[in-house]
Amino acid sequence: MLLRNVTIATMDGATPYGLIREGAVALHGAQIAWVGKMDALPRDWANAESLDLDGRLVTPGLVDCHTHVVHGGNRAREFEMRLEGASYAEIARAGGGIVSTVAQTRAASEDALVASALPRVDALIAEGVTTLEIKSGYGLERDTELRMLRAARRIGKVRPIHVCTSFLGAHATPADIGADAYLDDVCLPALDAAHAEGLVDAVDGFCEGIAFAPDQIRRLFERAGALGLPVKLHAEQLSNLGGARLAAEFGALSADHLEYADDGDAAAMAAAGTVAVILPAAFYTLRETQAPPIDAFRRHGVPMALATDCNPGSSPMTSLLLTMNMGATLFRMTPEDCLAGVTRNAARALGLQDRGTITAGARADLAIWDVEHPRDLSYRIGFNPLWKRVYGGKL
Ligand code: DI6
Ligand code: FE
Questions:
Q1: Which ligand 1 atom lies nearest to the CA of residue 279?
Q2: Pocket test for ligand 1, best of 68, 168, 310 (most atoms within 8 A of CB)
């Protein structure tokens, strides 16, 4: 199958956007076989079944590399409380926040978790998302953590989307147990069990005053290492506790949030190849005022990804396009940074080398847009110009 007469943002690293005008993309099964200018098309493709795309833009399928899309219930009441003056940390300390979603998630069956997540997943798919990361972390006990991960795996079977799972048992401490006891007696054994069932692609944690201290996260990462699993970390979201450096020390795939990260954190992440996952909808929802150090990430050459952080508390966000606009307007990321952030760098934040660019040999996951230029994708607010999505070579 040949897609011809297209503008291609290959995102292969050549600037700007790896852009090819009057291009063609040849697909063989679930893979990209060839990409280039139409007039350079190899002869053996000249007679292939082809589709004229009328100059539309083709990008890699989008990758949302940080979500909590599987969860029970909603927290609209907390949204109101924040409007009445309560802070996110105050609500968390008063037994609201993550812990209130835990109660609703524990009460939900696997079927109910899948059913409530699907409308959110469908909203992402409708914007060209082809790879989706989903975290556990609202169970805080073994059975519910495993049930969340099974629900996540099922989403990848009932929808045309690739799901990567992250075990986030170290998300919060249940009210009835101390953090160390929770970690040793519940979280680490649940990780072992989830891994034994093949439910874990990466291990994540929340390093924060209201969650886990660096020495506790270190124990989590040591266990992940023993199981041969890659790590990532919610770090420096509300304060700087050294989470980003700890993540870098363990060669983490990514450190996420990072509003309170500093220049030294950026240097450590660059040296380790750790991706900075920027989550502007959480910054926006919490009315945070300290922006992540984008210039430092740029200066040190830290790859930046953008993700929705879709969750019921700090980021009830199901639009990766709006996330791109926020990355640009709130953090001064360029439209090219934003597109790299939801393609090449987002794939890297998940440890996936076979996607995120349009290059020969990559997976044939593509998004086809009714726009002139890739900058248009970051520019609009609340407008979805997706024409069609190609998933695993299928239109
Ligand atoms: N940081 C976040 O933004 C989400 N989790 C985390 O560690 C928020 C989760 C929630 O408020 O339910
Ligand atoms: Fe998160």
A1: 3
A2: 68
Torsion of CA 94, 286, 133, 243, to 10 degrees: -80
In the numeric block, which tokens belong to residue 32? 């990209």
**Rounded to an integer, what distance in angstroms lies between the CA atom of residue 157 and that of residue 132?**
13
Q: pTM for the full model?
A: 0.97
Q: Is the CB of 365 under 6 A from ligand 1?
A: no
Ligand 1 and 168: CB distance under 6 A: no
Tell me, rounded to whole angstroms, the distance of Cα 111 from its chain centroid: 23
291: DSSP letter = P
Cα(211)–Cα(175) distance, rounded to whole angstroms?
A: 12
* pLDDT per residue as tens, the chain (395 positions): 999 999 999 999 998 999 999 999 999 999 999 999 999 999 999 889 999 999 999 999 999 999 999 999 999 989 998 899 998 788 877 778 888 999 999 999 999 999 999 999 999 999 999 999 999 999 999 999 999 999 999 999 999 999 999 999 999 988 889 999 999 999 999 999 999 999 999 999 999 998 999 999 999 999 999 999 999 999 999 999 999 999 999 999 999 999 999 999 999 999 999 999 999 999 999 899 999 999 999 999 999 999 999 999 999 999 999 999 999 999 999 999 999 999 999 999 999 999 999 999 999 999 999 999 999 999 999 999 999 999 999 99
Contact indicator for 151, 110 with CB cutoff of 8 Å? yes
